Amino acid sequence: MASGAHKLIPSDPEKVMVIRHLTPEVVTLSTPFLRFGRIKIGGRGTLVRLATGSVAVFSPVALTDTVRKETDTLGEVKYLVASDQEHHIFLESWHKAYPTAKILAPETLPSHRDKQNYFKLPQANYILFPDKGPAPSVTPEFDAEFDVEYLPQHPNKELVVNHRPSKTLIEADLLFNLPATEQFSKTDVSPTSGILTKIFNALQNTRGNAIWQRRFLWYGVSDRAAFNERVRRIAGWDFERIVPCHGDVIESGGKGIFEKVMEWHLKAKDAKKST
Q1: CA distance 144 to 163
Q2: Rounded-to-integer distance, Cα 110 and Cα 135, Å
Q3: At 101, is the secondary structure helix, strand, or coil?
Q4: Which of 42, 119, 208, 218 lies deepest, with the highest CB count within 10 Å?
Q5: Strands 43-49, 39-40: parallel, antiparallel or unpaired by DSSP?
Q6: Are 9 and 126 in contact (CB under 8 A)?
């Protein structure tokens, strides 16, 4: 792990992590996380067991003894997914525990890790999604269960998936659902305390018309037309639940919430009038 990363994560993640089975196949690993060492946004990894018995790990969090036991109970880890170029700090420990697992990531991740002095992961393990050109197929078993969309126009290079059997959309920073209630529930820290956290919670939530989250996305992406096209494809998927990395899981009605937050991108011709 690169120097400085330890300031963002709990000193003893074993004590404060919340492990929850959303379905028999989908398990969330929710933990405290501080953005810039100050803002309480929480972090979350997700385990998914495929019908074949293989396991995919999205946005890996600390590989504690309990997490290792839970993961091995599910099946054999074959996929480690950096859901964007910022959700990778624990890849080293997961790779060392499961050295044959494929690493799905934006094509920018290897150089991004090099610049931050992270452990160099084997090039042979990577399946990289390019900023331009067609997305790669992963494996027949993975492709049979997951829809995948890569959004390089997002500042963090988002890799979004939908687990079709459980109708679960899994994403990193594309959509926030703050405050991070579950992620801080085993600590003595309020997920809404602190002025910076209060401001960020007000900006990055799905309540009401989610106007500030809409604005962050609308003005924050590059090549808006290309981003809009990818968002429309995601909106065409069949999902009910959203598992974000930051904030609480949206247990039901996720499709409607996604459409609300992304409305300007889904109806791009009306977006400027809406702002």
Answers
A1: 10
A2: 17
A3: coil
A4: 42
A5: unpaired
A6: no
Cα separations in angstroms, 103 against 19, 49, 69 = 23, 16, 21
> Looking at domain 5-274, does it have CATH number 3.60.15.10?
yes
Residue 267 pLDDT exceeds 80: yes
Query: What does pLDDT average to over the chain?
Result: 94
Please report, to the nearest 10 degrees, the dihedral formed by the alpha carbons of residues 21, 24, 25, 27 taken in order: 10
Domain ranges of the chain: 5-274
Phi, psi of 95 (to 5 degrees): -65, -40
Q: What is the predicted pLDDT for the residue at 169?
A: 99
- The pLDDT-based confidence of 167 (bands split at 50, 70, 90) is very high
Q: Which residue, 204, 206, 229, is CA-closest to 216?
A: 204
pTM equals 0.94
66-to-5, 29, 76 alpha-carbon distances in Å? 22, 10, 16
Fill in the DSSP letter of residue 249: -
Query: H/E element holding 69?
Result: helix 65-74
The answer to whether residues 96 and 89 touch, using CB atoms and an 8 Å cutoff, is no
Residue type, 212: W
Torsion of CA 117, 61, 199, 219, to 10 degrees: 70
Residues 4-8: contacts with CB under 8 Å, at least 24 apart: 5/89, 7/34, 7/37, 8/33, 8/34, 8/35, 8/37, 8/89
Residues 6+ apart with CB under 8 A from 145: 50, 51, 163, 164, 165
Query: Reduced to 3 DSSP states, what percent helix, strand and coil does the chain have, rounded to the nearest 5?
Result: 35, 25, 45
